[in-house]
Design brief:
The protein is of the alpha/beta class. It has 16 helices and eleven strands.
Protein backbone atom coordinates (compact mmCIF):
# COMPACT_ATOMS: atom_id res chain seq x y z
CA UNK A 1 0.00 0.00 0.00
CA UNK A 2 1.16 3.55 -0.75
CA UNK A 3 2.20 5.74 2.13
CA UNK A 4 -0.65 7.50 3.88
CA UNK A 5 -1.01 11.26 4.11
CA UNK A 6 0.68 11.57 7.50
CA UNK A 7 3.15 8.70 7.24
CA UNK A 8 6.42 9.56 8.97
CA UNK A 9 4.91 12.02 11.46
CA UNK A 10 5.64 11.02 15.06
CA UNK A 11 3.02 11.79 17.70
CA UNK A 12 3.03 11.29 21.48
CA UNK A 13 -0.40 11.28 23.13
CA UNK A 14 -0.99 11.60 26.89
CA UNK A 15 -4.12 11.85 29.00
CA UNK A 16 -7.41 10.11 29.60
CA UNK A 17 -10.78 9.54 28.00
CA UNK A 18 -11.82 11.10 24.71
CA UNK A 19 -10.56 14.47 23.46
CA UNK A 20 -6.80 13.87 23.11
CA UNK A 21 -7.40 10.24 22.17
CA UNK A 22 -9.73 11.26 19.33
CA UNK A 23 -7.22 13.77 17.99
CA UNK A 24 -4.61 11.02 18.15
CA UNK A 25 -6.97 8.62 16.40
CA UNK A 26 -7.59 11.04 13.52
CA UNK A 27 -3.86 11.50 13.01
CA UNK A 28 -3.19 7.76 13.34
CA UNK A 29 -5.92 6.95 10.83
CA UNK A 30 -4.20 9.29 8.37
CA UNK A 31 -0.98 7.30 8.88
CA UNK A 32 0.86 9.12 11.70
CA UNK A 33 2.91 7.04 14.14
CA UNK A 34 1.08 7.62 17.42
CA UNK A 35 2.45 6.43 20.76
CA UNK A 36 -0.23 6.47 23.44
CA UNK A 37 1.20 7.08 26.91
CA UNK A 38 -0.96 5.72 29.72
CA UNK A 39 -0.32 6.02 33.42
CA UNK A 40 0.29 2.71 35.16
CA UNK A 41 -3.39 2.04 35.92
CA UNK A 42 -4.33 2.73 32.31
CA UNK A 43 -6.50 5.29 30.54
CA UNK A 44 -9.74 5.89 32.45
CA UNK A 45 -11.65 5.03 29.27
CA UNK A 46 -10.63 1.37 29.79
CA UNK A 47 -13.21 1.39 32.62
CA UNK A 48 -16.03 2.68 30.39
CA UNK A 49 -18.36 0.50 28.38
CA UNK A 50 -19.81 -0.87 26.33
CA UNK A 51 -18.12 -4.21 27.00
CA UNK A 52 -18.71 -7.44 25.04
CA UNK A 53 -21.20 -9.47 27.03
CA UNK A 54 -21.58 -6.52 29.44
CA UNK A 55 -18.63 -7.85 31.45
CA UNK A 56 -16.18 -5.06 32.41
CA UNK A 57 -12.61 -5.76 31.34
CA UNK A 58 -9.71 -3.31 30.93
CA UNK A 59 -8.84 -4.72 27.50
CA UNK A 60 -12.42 -4.88 26.18
CA UNK A 61 -13.83 -1.38 26.56
CA UNK A 62 -15.60 -0.45 23.33
CA UNK A 63 -14.75 3.22 23.87
CA UNK A 64 -11.05 2.52 24.38
CA UNK A 65 -10.83 0.01 21.53
CA UNK A 66 -12.44 2.46 19.11
CA UNK A 67 -10.39 5.49 20.11
CA UNK A 68 -7.01 3.78 20.12
CA UNK A 69 -6.76 1.52 17.10
CA UNK A 70 -3.69 2.22 14.94
CA UNK A 71 -1.64 3.34 17.96
CA UNK A 72 1.21 1.85 19.93
CA UNK A 73 0.76 1.88 23.69
CA UNK A 74 3.18 2.35 26.58
CA UNK A 75 2.80 2.90 30.31
CA UNK A 76 4.63 5.64 32.19
CA UNK A 77 4.40 7.15 35.67
CA UNK A 78 4.36 10.84 34.83
CA UNK A 79 4.18 11.88 38.47
CA UNK A 80 7.80 10.81 39.05
CA UNK A 81 10.83 12.71 37.78
CA UNK A 82 12.23 9.56 36.15
CA UNK A 83 8.96 9.12 34.28
CA UNK A 84 9.05 12.74 33.14
CA UNK A 85 12.61 12.19 31.91
CA UNK A 86 11.38 9.29 29.79
CA UNK A 87 8.58 11.50 28.42
CA UNK A 88 11.20 14.05 27.45
CA UNK A 89 13.02 11.30 25.54
CA UNK A 90 9.83 10.48 23.66
CA UNK A 91 9.21 14.16 22.89
CA UNK A 92 12.77 14.64 21.64
CA UNK A 93 11.88 12.37 18.70
CA UNK A 94 8.30 13.62 18.23
CA UNK A 95 6.75 16.15 15.90
CA UNK A 96 3.57 16.49 17.98
CA UNK A 97 2.62 16.05 21.64
CA UNK A 98 -1.11 15.79 22.37
CA UNK A 99 -2.63 15.79 25.83
CA UNK A 100 -5.79 16.65 27.76
CA UNK A 101 -4.42 17.09 31.26
CA UNK A 102 -5.89 20.21 32.89
CA UNK A 103 -3.70 23.31 33.30
CA UNK A 104 -3.62 22.54 37.02
CA UNK A 105 -2.30 19.01 36.39
CA UNK A 106 0.23 19.86 33.70
CA UNK A 107 3.12 20.87 36.02
CA UNK A 108 2.57 17.70 38.07
CA UNK A 109 3.11 15.44 35.02
CA UNK A 110 5.98 17.29 33.35
CA UNK A 111 4.01 19.00 30.60
CA UNK A 112 6.09 22.18 30.55
CA UNK A 113 6.30 23.44 26.97
CA UNK A 114 9.22 25.76 27.61
CA UNK A 115 11.32 22.87 28.91
CA UNK A 116 10.17 20.43 26.24
CA UNK A 117 10.77 22.94 23.44
CA UNK A 118 14.36 23.41 24.63
CA UNK A 119 14.83 19.68 24.05
CA UNK A 120 12.98 19.79 20.72
CA UNK A 121 12.46 23.32 19.27
CA UNK A 122 10.23 21.92 16.52
CA UNK A 123 7.81 20.25 18.94
CA UNK A 124 4.13 21.11 18.62
CA UNK A 125 2.28 20.64 21.91
CA UNK A 126 -1.52 20.65 21.70
CA UNK A 127 -3.17 21.11 25.10
CA UNK A 128 -6.89 20.34 25.21
CA UNK A 129 -8.75 21.46 28.33
CA UNK A 130 -12.31 22.39 29.15
CA UNK A 131 -11.66 26.11 29.72
CA UNK A 132 -8.27 26.75 28.14
CA UNK A 133 -4.86 27.62 29.59
CA UNK A 134 -5.72 31.18 30.63
CA UNK A 135 -8.63 33.11 32.12
CA UNK A 136 -10.44 32.96 35.46
CA UNK A 137 -11.89 29.50 34.78
CA UNK A 138 -8.73 27.82 33.51
CA UNK A 139 -8.23 25.81 36.72
CA UNK A 140 -11.84 24.62 36.91
CA UNK A 141 -12.45 20.90 36.73
CA UNK A 142 -14.64 19.85 33.82
CA UNK A 143 -16.45 16.97 32.21
CA UNK A 144 -18.60 16.54 29.12
CA UNK A 145 -21.67 17.67 31.08
CA UNK A 146 -19.81 20.79 32.25
CA UNK A 147 -18.72 21.72 28.73
CA UNK A 148 -22.21 21.11 27.30
CA UNK A 149 -23.59 23.72 29.66
CA UNK A 150 -20.62 26.09 29.72
CA UNK A 151 -20.56 26.20 25.92
CA UNK A 152 -24.28 26.96 25.65
CA UNK A 153 -25.28 23.75 23.88
CA UNK A 154 -27.38 22.23 26.65
CA UNK A 155 -29.36 25.45 27.14
CA UNK A 156 -30.88 25.11 23.67
CA UNK A 157 -31.48 21.35 23.92
CA UNK A 158 -33.97 19.76 23.48
CA UNK A 159 -35.33 22.32 21.03
CA UNK A 160 -38.95 23.44 21.10
CA UNK A 161 -39.65 21.80 24.45
CA UNK A 162 -43.11 22.16 25.97
CA UNK A 163 -41.79 21.29 29.44
CA UNK A 164 -40.22 24.32 31.16
CA UNK A 165 -39.74 22.36 34.38
CA UNK A 166 -37.29 19.98 32.72
CA UNK A 167 -33.61 21.00 32.83
CA UNK A 168 -31.27 21.53 29.87
CA UNK A 169 -30.27 18.29 28.16
CA UNK A 170 -26.80 17.38 26.93
CA UNK A 171 -26.26 15.14 23.92
CA UNK A 172 -25.61 11.45 24.61
CA UNK A 173 -22.05 10.26 25.11
CA UNK A 174 -18.97 12.49 25.04
CA UNK A 175 -19.89 14.81 22.20
CA UNK A 176 -18.14 17.91 23.55
CA UNK A 177 -14.95 15.89 24.00
CA UNK A 178 -15.16 14.63 20.42
CA UNK A 179 -15.63 18.23 19.24
CA UNK A 180 -12.57 19.24 21.24
CA UNK A 181 -10.67 16.42 19.54
CA UNK A 182 -11.77 17.46 16.05
CA UNK A 183 -10.91 21.12 16.59
CA UNK A 184 -7.55 20.14 18.09
CA UNK A 185 -6.83 17.98 15.06
CA UNK A 186 -7.42 20.87 12.65
CA UNK A 187 -5.33 23.28 14.74
CA UNK A 188 -2.53 20.72 15.12
CA UNK A 189 -2.28 20.10 11.39
CA UNK A 190 -2.21 23.86 10.82
CA UNK A 191 0.67 24.15 13.26
CA UNK A 192 2.43 21.24 11.57
CA UNK A 193 2.12 23.00 8.19
CA UNK A 194 3.68 26.10 9.79
CA UNK A 195 6.47 23.91 11.14
CA UNK A 196 7.11 22.52 7.65
CA UNK A 197 7.58 26.09 6.40
CA UNK A 198 9.61 27.49 9.30
CA UNK A 199 10.90 24.59 11.38
CA UNK A 200 9.25 26.17 14.43
CA UNK A 201 7.11 24.35 16.94
CA UNK A 202 4.48 25.99 19.13
CA UNK A 203 2.08 25.43 22.02
CA UNK A 204 -1.60 25.20 21.00
CA UNK A 205 -4.30 25.97 23.56
CA UNK A 206 -7.67 24.31 22.76
CA UNK A 207 -10.68 25.16 24.94
CA UNK A 208 -13.57 22.69 24.69
CA UNK A 209 -15.98 25.37 25.94
CA UNK A 210 -14.96 27.59 23.03
CA UNK A 211 -15.21 24.71 20.55
CA UNK A 212 -18.86 24.31 21.55
CA UNK A 213 -19.63 28.04 21.65
CA UNK A 214 -18.19 28.34 18.13
CA UNK A 215 -20.73 25.92 16.60
CA UNK A 216 -23.99 27.32 18.01
CA UNK A 217 -25.15 28.25 14.51
CA UNK A 218 -27.19 31.48 14.35
CA UNK A 219 -27.89 31.88 18.05
CA UNK A 220 -25.32 34.62 18.66
CA UNK A 221 -26.69 36.54 15.66
CA UNK A 222 -30.25 36.28 16.99
CA UNK A 223 -29.10 37.89 20.22
CA UNK A 224 -26.75 40.44 18.65
CA UNK A 225 -29.08 41.77 15.95
CA UNK A 226 -32.55 41.06 17.33
CA UNK A 227 -32.02 41.01 21.07
CA UNK A 228 -33.63 37.57 21.14
CA UNK A 229 -32.19 34.81 23.30
CA UNK A 230 -32.49 31.35 21.79
CA UNK A 231 -34.12 28.90 24.16
CA UNK A 232 -35.00 25.25 24.22
CA UNK A 233 -38.43 26.27 25.54
CA UNK A 234 -41.55 27.08 23.55
CA UNK A 235 -42.81 25.97 20.19
CA UNK A 236 -41.35 26.87 16.85
CA UNK A 237 -42.92 29.91 15.25
CA UNK A 238 -43.13 28.24 11.85
CA UNK A 239 -44.44 24.78 11.02
CA UNK A 240 -44.24 21.83 10.11
CA UNK A 241 -40.88 21.25 11.80
CA UNK A 242 -41.31 18.01 13.69
CA UNK A 243 -40.81 14.26 13.98
CA UNK A 244 -43.60 11.97 12.84
CA UNK A 245 -44.23 8.37 13.88
CA UNK A 246 -44.44 6.03 10.91
CA UNK A 247 -45.30 2.31 11.01
CA UNK A 248 -41.73 1.28 11.75
CA UNK A 249 -39.92 4.33 13.09
CA UNK A 250 -39.65 8.10 13.09
CA UNK A 251 -39.25 10.58 10.24
CA UNK A 252 -38.00 14.15 10.67
CA UNK A 253 -39.85 16.72 8.57
CA UNK A 254 -39.03 20.36 7.83
CA UNK A 255 -41.67 21.73 5.50
CA UNK A 256 -42.08 25.44 6.21
CA UNK A 257 -41.72 26.97 2.75
CA UNK A 258 -45.09 27.42 1.05
CA UNK A 259 -44.17 25.51 -2.09
CA UNK A 260 -42.96 22.58 0.03
CA UNK A 261 -46.14 22.69 2.08
CA UNK A 262 -48.28 22.54 -1.07
CA UNK A 263 -46.33 19.52 -2.30
CA UNK A 264 -46.85 17.84 1.07
CA UNK A 265 -50.59 18.60 0.85
CA UNK A 266 -50.63 16.94 -2.57
CA UNK A 267 -48.77 13.92 -1.18
CA UNK A 268 -51.41 13.68 1.57
CA UNK A 269 -54.14 13.60 -1.12
CA UNK A 270 -55.24 17.25 -0.85
CA UNK A 271 -57.34 16.75 2.30
CA UNK A 272 -60.10 19.27 2.95
CA UNK A 273 -58.65 20.26 6.33
CA UNK A 274 -55.56 21.66 4.59
CA UNK A 275 -57.68 24.51 3.19
CA UNK A 276 -58.71 25.75 6.64
CA UNK A 277 -57.70 29.32 7.49
CA UNK A 278 -55.81 28.13 10.57
CA UNK A 279 -53.32 26.37 8.25
CA UNK A 280 -53.08 29.16 5.67
CA UNK A 281 -49.34 29.91 6.05
CA UNK A 282 -46.33 28.73 8.00
CA UNK A 283 -46.84 31.23 10.82
CA UNK A 284 -50.46 30.35 11.56
CA UNK A 285 -49.59 26.68 11.14
CA UNK A 286 -47.06 27.23 13.93
CA UNK A 287 -49.66 29.03 16.02
CA UNK A 288 -52.08 26.14 15.51
CA UNK A 289 -49.61 23.33 16.01
CA UNK A 290 -52.00 21.44 18.32
CA UNK A 291 -54.62 21.23 15.59
CA UNK A 292 -52.21 20.39 12.77
CA UNK A 293 -50.11 17.72 14.42
CA UNK A 294 -52.85 15.04 14.71
CA UNK A 295 -53.58 15.34 10.97
CA UNK A 296 -49.91 14.95 10.07
CA UNK A 297 -49.49 12.07 12.49
CA UNK A 298 -52.56 10.25 11.13
CA UNK A 299 -51.12 10.53 7.62
CA UNK A 300 -47.62 9.34 8.59
CA UNK A 301 -48.93 6.34 10.55
CA UNK A 302 -49.97 4.68 7.30
CA UNK A 303 -46.45 4.71 5.85
CA UNK A 304 -43.14 3.00 6.50
CA UNK A 305 -40.22 5.35 7.05
CA UNK A 306 -38.49 4.27 3.83
CA UNK A 307 -41.59 4.68 1.66
CA UNK A 308 -42.54 8.10 3.02
CA UNK A 309 -38.93 9.28 2.80
CA UNK A 310 -38.75 8.20 -0.84
CA UNK A 311 -42.10 9.80 -1.65
CA UNK A 312 -40.97 13.03 -0.02
CA UNK A 313 -37.66 13.03 -1.92
CA UNK A 314 -39.50 12.59 -5.22
CA UNK A 315 -41.51 15.73 -4.42
CA UNK A 316 -38.55 17.74 -3.02
CA UNK A 317 -39.97 17.79 0.50
CA UNK A 318 -37.37 18.00 3.29
CA UNK A 319 -37.55 14.72 5.19
CA UNK A 320 -34.99 12.46 6.83
CA UNK A 321 -35.23 9.10 8.63
CA UNK A 322 -34.37 9.20 12.34
CA UNK A 323 -31.92 6.31 12.23
CA UNK A 324 -31.47 3.95 15.14
CA UNK A 325 -28.11 2.28 15.71
CA UNK A 326 -29.52 -0.86 14.06
CA UNK A 327 -30.54 1.23 11.04
CA UNK A 328 -27.00 2.56 10.71
CA UNK A 329 -25.40 -0.88 11.04
CA UNK A 330 -27.69 -2.19 8.31
CA UNK A 331 -27.52 0.90 6.08
CA UNK A 332 -26.95 -0.05 2.45
CA UNK A 333 -25.32 3.33 1.88
CA UNK A 334 -22.77 2.88 4.68
CA UNK A 335 -22.13 -0.68 3.53
CA UNK A 336 -21.45 0.56 0.00
CA UNK A 337 -18.95 3.07 1.41
CA UNK A 338 -17.38 0.34 3.59
CA UNK A 339 -17.74 2.57 6.64
CA UNK A 340 -17.83 -0.18 9.23
CA UNK A 341 -14.75 -2.33 9.61
CA UNK A 342 -13.80 -5.43 11.55
CA UNK A 343 -10.77 -5.36 13.85
CA UNK A 344 -9.29 -8.39 15.59
CA UNK A 345 -7.89 -7.81 19.07
CA UNK A 346 -5.93 -10.38 21.07
CA UNK A 347 -8.21 -10.11 24.11
CA UNK A 348 -11.46 -8.52 22.93
CA UNK A 349 -11.73 -10.71 19.83
CA UNK A 350 -13.04 -9.66 16.42
CA UNK A 351 -15.53 -6.81 16.59
CA UNK A 352 -17.14 -4.35 14.21
CA UNK A 353 -16.13 -0.70 14.52
CA UNK A 354 -16.99 2.59 12.86
CA UNK A 355 -14.28 3.27 10.32
CA UNK A 356 -12.65 6.54 9.29
CA UNK A 357 -15.07 9.33 8.34
CA UNK A 358 -13.10 10.19 5.20
CA UNK A 359 -11.99 8.71 1.89
CA UNK A 360 -8.60 9.45 0.37
CA UNK A 361 -7.82 7.98 -3.04
CA UNK A 362 -4.91 5.50 -3.06
CA UNK A 363 -3.64 6.51 0.40
CA UNK A 364 -6.72 5.81 2.44
CA UNK A 365 -7.66 4.38 5.79
CA UNK A 366 -6.27 1.07 6.90
CA UNK A 367 -6.12 -0.78 10.21
CA UNK A 368 -2.43 -1.26 10.90
CA UNK A 369 -2.97 -2.54 14.45
CA UNK A 370 -5.77 -2.87 17.02
CA UNK A 371 -5.87 -0.76 20.18
CA UNK A 372 -2.86 -1.60 22.37
CA UNK A 373 -3.05 -3.71 25.47
CA UNK A 374 -1.84 -1.91 28.57
CA UNK A 375 1.91 -1.41 28.18
CA UNK A 376 2.02 -3.66 25.11
CA UNK A 377 4.77 -1.74 23.31
CA UNK A 378 6.92 -0.68 26.26
CA UNK A 379 10.01 -2.58 25.19
CA UNK A 380 9.77 -1.63 21.51
CA UNK A 381 9.06 2.07 22.00
CA UNK A 382 11.50 2.66 24.83
CA UNK A 383 14.25 0.89 22.92
CA UNK A 384 13.70 3.41 20.10
CA UNK A 385 14.64 6.28 22.41
CA UNK A 386 17.85 4.53 23.46
CA UNK A 387 16.91 2.70 26.64
CA UNK A 388 18.58 -0.67 27.06
CA UNK A 389 16.62 -3.73 28.17
CA UNK A 390 18.37 -3.53 31.54
CA UNK A 391 17.26 0.11 31.95
CA UNK A 392 13.70 -0.78 30.93
CA UNK A 393 13.64 -3.63 33.45
CA UNK A 394 14.93 -1.28 36.15
CA UNK A 395 12.21 1.28 35.37
CA UNK A 396 9.60 -1.49 35.66
CA UNK A 397 10.94 -2.55 39.04
CA UNK A 398 10.87 1.05 40.18
CA UNK A 399 7.23 1.59 39.24
CA UNK A 400 8.05 4.05 36.45
CA UNK A 401 6.78 2.01 33.50
Amino acid sequence: MAEQLLSGINVVECGNMVSAAYTGKLLADFGANVVKVEELDGDVSRQRGPFPGDTPHAEKSGLFLYLNANKQGVTLNLHESKGQAVLQGLCAQADILLHNYSPREMPEVGLDYEKLSQINPGLIMTSISYFGQTGPHSDYHGYDLTASNAGGWAFISPGASDYPDLPPLKAFGHQTDFQGGVHAGVATLGAYYHKCLTGEGQHLDVSVQECIAAILEMNFMHYTYSGLETSRLGRRSIYPWCMLDCKDGKLFVICVEEDQWQRLVELMGNPEWATLEIFADRVVRGQNYDALMPFLQEFAAEWTVADLYKAGQERRICMAPVNTMADLLNSEHLKAREFFTEISHQVAGTLQYPGAPFKVEDVGYTIRRPAPQLGEHNNEVYARIGLSQAEIDELKRGGII
